[in-house]
Amino acid sequence: MSTVRTVRTVLSAAGFPEEQVRHRARHGAEAAFPDLAGYGSGMLGAAPAGHDPYDLLENARIVPPVFMPDRLKKLIDLAREPLYTDVDLTTRIGGFTSRLPLYVSAFGSTQVASHDLGEAAGRQAGALGIPMVIGENVVPVNGYRAAADTQASPLLGRIAAYTAAADDEHGGVTVQQSTEDADAEVWNLLYSDPVSEPLLATGRLAFELKVGQGAKPGLGGLTVLDRDAARRIDEQYATDEVFGGDSERILRVSSPGTFTEEILRRQVMLMRNNFPRAKVWVKLHPGRDVADAARVAWAAGADSVTVDGAEAGTAWAPTGFLGHVGLPLAEALLRIGRTDHCLLASGRMWEGTRAVKALALGARAVGLGRAALLAVDEDGDAGLRRLVDSIALELQMLTSAVGKYRTGDLSAEDLLLPAAPPPPPAA
What we know:
By secondary structure, the protein is an alpha/beta fold. The chain contains 18 helices and 15 strands. The protein has helices at residues 2-13, 18-27, 56-59, 69-78, 115-128, 138-142, 154-165, 179-183, 186-191, 197-201, 227-232, 261-274, 290-300, 319-324, 329-336, 352-360, 370-378, 383-401, and strands at residues 61-62, 91-93, 96-98, 102-104, 132-134, 173-177, 205-210, 222-226, 238-240, 249-253, 279-284, 304-308, 343-346, 365-368, 415-416. The strands form four sheets. It has an eight-stranded parallel beta sheet with strand order 4-14-13-12-11-7-6-5. Helix 5 (115-128) crosses helix 18 and helix 16 (352-360) crosses helix 18. The longest helix is centred in the last third of the chain and has 19 residues, at 383-401. The protein is globular, with a radius of gyration of 23 Å.
């Protein structure tokens, strides 16, 4: 007994994470994940804002110049001094016309993005005239019902809610498909479904190939199921009893898919050939070769490429991935560089300063994921609209402050980037 107490004292004095080790010793593989009690009702992400020294977006400063020739041009055009309200926020996003350089990112399939919240987000995004992305796994988890059925699936319900609230000129709906979604033929079903026709007829439907996710780059989707649900999908999906044989919960494991330059190129070309009326989007995780992947996707004909930074949210992932795997969003944007193609960015977007910094580093628009979900949870009728109103005000003020009047004119010269953080001390 005295030996055990001595070891504990030494470990604690050395700052060793004693309780975390003991937690793993008690729970095994389950301890690699967040608390299971929060699954389906909470959202996960990387370190809190301001706590990650590699988060250049958080640490960068917006730096207005003294001399502003673009403001003079605007003054001449308007025949008066320009105001921040003169900043034009209209943006072309992946083949869509958006009222703002914003879109709603994918929510996923867990109960946190239930019928009510998903459809509320759809209604508000449609009314705002900004695009909405519907995530992968929605059909494999919830099923796909014909549009004529009395109870619409979460996928069709979100699309119908969006379409009913939108006009025929602004915004659009993008539907993701991952490797395993392909087995469920999500795009094939949706492309011929009457619910899609209003969007197809106005050029406002896109399909997004999901190569990876920022919160768990290189890892496929993970879903927690009860044993009955796991038995129903046992022949179609892999499962793992990481929570122990006595638990009623099973981990459903999705394949991340295998990509090379040639595979990605052919996938994009197949999408264009098989679904000629839909726009083609590609979502990339923040891998070290993200610039090469973006280049391949655009060369193959993608209308848009989304890079999901390591700060991005997720419903479920090993805790080690959340803070230690993948490039932060700013680094991914810097590696890709400014381009004439449509580059979208997501990862902890919730207010205007971070959005402006991402736009200055080359993004065409930024995605609201967890922030949008929290907003509609706060107020299903107007929460997202109010959140977007606040961001739009900041976008106009900050863009005007650097002497520019379109967000597309923002550039890296408008930022002071912090020096790279020092390397960790040698062991």
